[in-house]
């Protein structure tokens, strides 16, 4: 442990674990990739990308949407949809307790935030996963909000963009969560039937039931640099095949090489990239994009 | 060794059956007629099977669902369909033996079949990868779905997998994409789809061939977002808590029917499908004929609308009023 870790209060001292939503002003953070000591607000102002090594730190759903959407004309979709404990699920702890804790930690009511708005003046419906809410796991609420977002896009003739960051299905909702894979993916057939684009952005991490449903059926599939993306988790695979996995396995760059994603885009360039792609796929003039 | 494989909780049945075997052996060179005694014990054994199977825990059900002698997809195809022609390969990489499929006749009418396939002996198990498909398996299934749509053949799928294979090659070739693509295509495939969970419905690897208009489940099949062992090792940090995980996950046909996630439970013979595969297939065939009748009269546009609505209503949540 370095001197700086010892100085940091425990709540901030999670640099190794990665996910950070907000950095109180004036605090130092260590980049887990290059060990550089970064001033917290410098990181925030750089789209949570390390200014030294370009490591993409994880980013919360609202911060993500805030980074991309134009300030005016935002409208949240499905915020009133809230989780219930339909199975009375109990492991070492009860599901409602876990939900409450996740809500307190993130300020969200579930793991997906959907906003209608525009990106450089190109109208869009945009969904983002909150990884810090129970690992971004997909249960009934995530599925329902996703579908409401897609249905709104269909109704308003808008494209749909989703930022995935999820460990997969939410075990505490049993088969209901598995069926969200079919539900979310099926809704995209309606978008497609109206020739409206779906752009899927895979961020760190995109695994399991989220990866194996709508994530790869985008008209364009984008990954963030270094993001872990796959069906099975690396540990499960290691246990199954009983060998050490090669370096970079299941990382964005590996997926690009294997032909699984269209491109890797630096988060700081994502806004312009998305706006231009959306304009192209909808046959809009270049002038439709705000300079 | 007896010809049946007995599960832990079936030990009392095993002991009784052993005794019956012994008596049979004795009877062969005995002057005393003990056939009455054998009959009595047989009846007792049958009653015991019924008794034990009437109160299986979810964990015990999952043992039955994985029973090594349980009928698999090809057994059901053999028993319920005629004129089956297995089609192989995904036309891109390989033929995955963990998924089988092809056209056949059901009660004389042409249809398409897709199902997971486990192996019976050591060699076949390995060849079929214990019923765990790789992307090429799902892509073969996709190809058959599209063929079914092209020729207007109703599609029967049979689900029996521990899950999609978590291997290096599977990841390299896009396991996630293959599964997601199937969900997408099945949700709009313009032919009736009737899916039956016959053994293990293991998560995304099961769902990838299980989006349909009618979802049936055999009485002792299971369907789950994660295996009880997997769930237990994540949430309890110990695979030994699998029985608890099985209980809380809600993986049995009865529980899932009550939750509205499956349409129909197909009863199995006393003691499970493996004790009387013929009777199991007979029951399933009847249920499939019923299910097919329900969907085949519906014009395809309506069927697709109903399928979409069915998919959209999955999930439980509440709407806050604040």
Provide an overview of this structure.
- The complex is a heterodimer of chains A (291) and B (322).
- Chain A is α/β, with parallel strands linked by helices.
- Chain A is built from ten helices and eleven strands.
- Chain A has helices spanning 3-7, 40-45, 61-68, 95-106, 140-156, 174-193, 208-211, 234-241, 252-258, 270-281, and strands at residues 28-30, 37-39, 75-77, 81-83, 112-119, 122-129, 160-166, 198-207, 220-223, 229-230, 263-264.
- In chain A, strands 3, 5, 6, 7, 8, 9, 10 and 11 form an eight-stranded mixed β-sheet that branches. A two-stranded antiparallel ribbon of chain A has the order 1-2.
- In chain A, strand 6, helix 5 (140-156) and strand 7 (160-166) form a beta-alpha-beta unit.
- Chain B is α/β, with parallel strands linked by helices and 322 residues long.
- Helices cover 47% and strands 15% of the residues of chain B.
- Chain B has helices spanning 11-28, 35-53, 58-65, 73-80, 122-127, 135-150, 168-172, 175-186, 203-207, 228-235, 242-249, 253-258, 277-296, 300-312; strands spanning 99-106, 109-116, 155-161, 193-202, 214-218, 222-224, 264-266, 317-319.
- In chain B, strands 1, 2, 3, 4, 5, 6 and 7 form a seven-stranded mixed β-sheet that branches.
- In chain B, a hairpin with a 2-residue loop joins strand 1 (99-106) and strand 2 (109-116).
- The model of chain B has no long low-confidence stretch (mean pLDDT 95).
- At the A-B interface, strand 4, helix 5, helix 6, helix 7 and strand 10 of A face helix 7, helix 8, helix 9, helix 10 and helix 11 of B.
- Strand 4 of chain A pairs antiparallel with strand 8 of chain B.
